[in-house]
Amino acid sequence: MSARLAPEALYDAIDAADWYEQQSPGLGTRFEAAVDALVLTLTAQPRLYPRVARAPRGREIREGPVPGFPFVAGYEVIGADVVVLSIDHARSIRRRWRRRLP
Question: Cβ distance 75 to 84 under 8 Å?
Fold first, then answer.
């Protein structure tokens, strides 16, 4: 398995890391490390987290938590690949991955 962040998800992670860094020096770096840890987990166990309710038919969309932070990563399992589509705040009602499906 391989996992990667879509360009939009990378921007989501950078924006959140910048915000955390402004709040407390070093916290943004910890957020980036947590995202990296999640990507490594998804590489090893892509189906660890549950499918998303009301995902488009025929698509394997799942969401997994960013460890230690109130964020979730929306990702799609495509064959032997995992593509992280978005990184959203856990309390956000909008999930950006829906608009980012290819």
Answer: yes
Handedness of CA 4, 9, 11, 13 (dihedral sign): negative
pLDDT of residue 53: 85
pLDDT for 99 equals 67
Tell me how many degrees the CA angle 37-82-59 measures, rounded to the nearest 5: 135
Question: Where do the domains of the chain lie?
Answer: 2-100
For the whole prediction, is pTM greater than 0.85?
yes
Cα separation, 52 vs 32, in Å, equals 24
CA dist., res. 90 & res. 63, Å (int) = 10
Coil, helix or strand for 54?
coil
Supply the pLDDT for residue 9.
93
CATH class of 2-100: alpha beta
Q: Which residue positions in the chain have pLDDT lower than 50?
A: none
CA 61 from chain centre, in angstroms, equals 11
